[in-house]
Design goal:
Elements lengths: L3 E7 L2 E7 L4 E6 L8 H19 L3 H7 L13
Antiparallel strand pairs: 1-2, 2-3
Length: 79
Amino acid sequence: MDGKVELSDKNGQKICKFEDDNIQVTIVLKKDYSDVEFKLRTSNILKDIEDALENVSKTDEFKDLVDSYGFLEVDRIEG
């Protein structure tokens, strides 16, 4: 992805913002992953992001957002 990635820490929450010419996404990790074994941390974080995307993709608001382009289906996110 060509674009801008910004990482920050606000009130103990890790924040990642990324954007390109087409979209801007902000992810705030509210959960503390420090107690997760290091080698499993990335997969746990990606699984939580995937679950959140699957849940939001089922909402009427999200469907309205992408309605003119078709319904977004999240099959799998790999990291």
